[in-house]
Amino acid sequence: MLGIFLGVAALITVLSVMNGFGKELRDRILGVVSHVTISQTGAKLKDWKSVARIAKEHEQVTAMAPYVLGQGMLNSKGSVKGVMVRGILPDQEAGVSRLGNAMKSGALADLKPGEYGMIIGSALTWKLDIDVGSYVSLIVPQALATPAGIMPRFRRFKVVGVFDVGMYEYDSGLTLIHMDDAAALYRIPEGASGLRLKIEDLYQAPEVALELQDKLGYAFITRDWTREHANFFRALKIEKRVMLVILLLIVAVAAFNIVSTLVMVVTDKQSDIAILRTLGLKPSSVMAVFMVQGTIIGVVGTALGVLGGVALAANVQEVVQFIEGLFKFKILAADVYYITDLPSDIHSSDVIVIAVSSFVMSIMATIYPAWRASRVQPAQALRYE
Fold first, then answer.
1. What is the pLDDT along the chain (385 residues), one digit of tens a residue?
2. Distance of alpha carbon 303 from alpha carbon 248, whole angstroms
3. How many other C-beta atoms lie within 10 A of the C-beta of residue 100?
């Protein structure tokens, strides 16, 4: 019972923590990446306002914002860093992303058209040795023909804000400027690169993207967040499945203990089994007796494991804080990890799968010892009694 309890509790706790990390990473990614993106074949979305009116008719769409997307290199004090440049409308961007809540200094509203202000990630401030108020040069991959020859195009920007979303990919490689400035810089006088949508249920994003694709036609391209980071989320899912299989071996070891325990009981109780057989107990009834005994071990161990695992998973952060305070060390140090807490997200489907798997293995573990008990011959068992 103790072995099954520990195995089930460990399984539920570990999978819940993995779910928590997956949810935390997904929330951080979706704080920057939109649920659904609409773009058009070519370099720009020519009439984003009409597309926005069509998208707004969908019941799942709660907010939308146009954007201009481009690449460039930031140059400051001799340091150069390649970045992704996103032109936004500050008043609409707040509806489709959480960048406004991730500002360490400044605000999205500080981006004014024509003033060429820029908001950068926290990792970029360290790489380029800049801060709010500093000036940087943005070089774009578009040539400019001059009497002196072909020259790269660049523009000087003033840093007006710094964000920190907790994802190094974005904190070190994303910059925000006003959409009008981006349109002028990348020579998109009308239109935008695309339209970003926020939907009510993010798990419905693939269906919403397909429905909008059918409504807009194949001149447009719709992509949802599951496709934007498909490999990352697929890796998380595979890792969770592998961890489930590995930790189920703990339960399998506990189930094997049921086999050894019942085999010893059968060997020790051979004479008692023989006496019951002589009194008329059928072999099937003998088998049922030992299967019930093993099943009770499995049921009690699984039930206690489920209760203990759910309780531990629901309070894992408090347990971690207690251990950290007891041994005076930090499990997830802030200077090493982007996620400093130990999140937990209990899924009822995981608990059910673990409980059913444990119960099935417990029952299967009773079959061989119970079969051996049913094969005991009274004459041979009582020969030396």
1. 888 888 888 888 888 888 888 888 777 777 788 888 888 876 677 788 888 888 888 888 888 889 888 888 988 888 888 899 999 888 888 888 888 888 888 888 899 988 889 999 888 888 888 888 889 988 887 766 656 556 667 889 999 999 988 777 888 889 999 998 888 888 887 778 888 998 888 788 888 888 888 888 888 888 888 887 777 778 878 888 888 888 788 788 877 888 888 888 887 777 777 888 788 888 888 888 888 888 888 889 889 999 999 999 888 888 888 887 887 777 766 556 666 677 888 888 889 988 888 888 888 888 888 888 887 777 665 665 5
2. 16
3. 15
What is the residue whose two structure tokens read 């079959």? 367
Look up residue 341 and give its two tokens.
């807490």
The residue extents of the domains of the chain are: 2-24+232-381, 34-228
309 close to 352: Cβ distance less than 8 angstroms? no
Distance CA 98, CA 7 (A): 39
Q: Which residue in the block uniquely carries the two structure tokens 């085999």?
A: 263
The closest alpha carbon to 19, from 299, 309, 252, belongs to 309
If you ran DSSP here, which 8-state letter would residue 219 be given? T
Sort 115 into a burial class: Cβ within 10 Å, 0-12 / 13-18 / 19+.
middle
Cβ atoms of residues 259 and 81 within 8 Å:
no
Residues 125-135: b if buried by 16+ CB within 10 A, e if exposed: bebbebebebe
For 116, left (φ over 0), alpha (ψ -120 to 50), or beta? left
Supply angle C-alpha 271, 276, 281, rounded to 5. 140
Amino acid at 277: R
